[in-house]
Amino acid sequence: MADTETAKLTIGDKVIDLPVMKPSVGPDVIDIRKLYAQGDVFTYDPGFTSTASCSSTITYIDGDKGELLYRGYPIEELADKSHFLECCYLLLYGELPNAAELEDFEARVTRHTMLHEQMQYFFRGFRRDAHPMAIMVGVVGAMSAFYHDSTDISDPWQREVASIRMIAKMPTIAAWAFKYSIGQPFVYPKNSLDYSGNFLHMCFSVPAEDYVVDPILSRAMDRIMMLHADHEQNASTSTVRLASSSGANPFASIAAGIACLWGPAHGGANQACLEMLQEIGTVDRIPEYIARAKDKDDPFRLMGFGHRVYKNFDPRAKVMKQSADEVLGLLGIENNETLKVAKELERIALEDPYFVDKKLYPNVDFYSGIILEAMGFPTSMFTPIFALSRTVGWISQWKEMIADPEQKIGRPRQRYMGAPRRDYVEIEDR
Q: Which residues are named in the active-site annotation (predicted)?
C-alpha cells in the first residue's frame, strides 16, 4: 500500500509536509530526507535513538513486547528448533533452507574454515599478552590482503564468496586468538565436526591428547551464537554499514564492526556482568548491592539488567538461563555460587517495585558470561565469541545495504556550538 499520510512541520512562517512511511511492522517513519533542502534545518538526535538510518528486512525488535524476530521468526522458536548455520542461511537469504539447500550451505562453510597458512605470522606478530579482540581486529582487516578475489563489492559473486569466507573463518580466527593468548599451539579445524563443536575443538583440544566435544556444551555454544547473530541497527551493525557505505571492502568493514563491539557498553557487557556477580560473591550480600543500585550517588550499577531497546524481558535471556542450568548441571557445578547469586538477584529485581517501574529486566548478558566461564573461557574471550556470533548479522546487513538503491554514503550532520567565523590576528597583536 502506498504511503499517503504526511506530517506537518512548522518552522517560523513556513509549513513543510513530510511523508509518513509505513513499515510492515512497528512504528511509522517520517521521511526527513528533504528537510534540509526545504527547511534549512537539521534534526538533532544524539545516539540516533529516534532515527531510522535504513530500510531492512532482516531483524525486528519490539521492545515493549520483549520480541526479537529473525526474518519474522521468533528467536525462542529458532533457539528451540533450529541451529546456528540454519539461522545463518535464514539471515543471509531471507528464508529457511530446505534439506538440499542446508546441506549445500553447511558444506560450503565447512570447506572454508581453514586460514591461509601465512596468516599465522600475523598472530605471532602480536605480544603474548595481547587481548584477543585486538588480534581479531587486526587479522580480520588483514584478510583483504589474502583474499583479493572477494573484495569487489560491485560483483554479486564476490560478495557471496566473502560472506561464506567470513562466516567460515571467524571461528578459526577467534580460536587461534585464544590459543595464542594462552601460549598453546594452534589447532586446525576439523571437517567432521559441526560449526559450534569445531569451535570448541579448536579452543580446547591439544596435540598431546584426544578431545571429545560434549554435545550439551556444543548445543549451548550453538545457542549463544544464535542469540547473538543479529540485533537490528545496533552500534556495531551501524558501524559496519557506515564503513561499507564508503565502498570499503567487506573485511575492512567487518573489522570496523569488531572494533566497535569491543566497547564495554556493547559486546563487553557480559564480561562486566560476570565481574559484578563475582564482586557480590554470595547471596547474603545481595541486599547491600540492591541498596547501592538504588542510590543515585553510588557509582555501582546492576549490570545485565535493562536494555536500550527492550522495555520488557529480553527474550534471549530466557533461553540463556535454560542453557546455564544445562551446562552447569552437566559440569557438576549447578551449586555454583555465581549462578546462585544470579538467580536470586534476578528473583529480587523482578519483584522489587524500583526495578519493575524502571523496566529493568535481565538481558542476554546476564547468564551468557556464567555459561562461558563454566565452559573454560576467560573473560577476555567473551567479546570475541560475541564477534564470531554477530559476523553473520554484519554480513547480512552489509549485503542488504550494498543492494539497496536508496543507500548513500553515511554523512551525519551536527549542531555546531563552537566559535562563529572570526578573523586571524597576528601574534604581536594577540
A: 307, 365
Q: Whats the size of the chain, residue-wise?
A: 430
Q: Find how far residue 316's CA is from the centre of its chain.
A: 13
Q: Is 83 a catalytic residue?
A: no
User: Has residue 355 got a pLDDT over 90?
Assistant: no
Query: In the chain, what are the helix, strand and coil shares in percent, each to the nearest 5?
Result: 55, 5, 40
Q: Which of 112, 365, 404, 429 is catalytic?
A: 365
The rounded distance, in Å, linking the Cα atoms of 360 and 130 is 35
Residue 415, CB-side half-sphere exposure with 13 Å CA sphere: 5
Burial of residue 405 (CB within 10 Å: 0-12, 13-18, 19+) is exposed
**347, part of any domain:** yes
In a domain, residue 94? The reply is yes
Residue 78 domain-assigned (yes or no): yes
SS3 74: strand
pLDDT in tens, 71-117: 999 999 999 999 999 999 999 999 999 999 999 999 999 999 999 99
Domain that holds residue 285: 58-405
Write phi, then psi, for 327 (nearest 5 degrees): -65, -50
Q: Would strands 67-70 and 6-11 be described as parallel, antiparallel, or unpaired? A: unpaired
Catalytic residue at 365?
yes
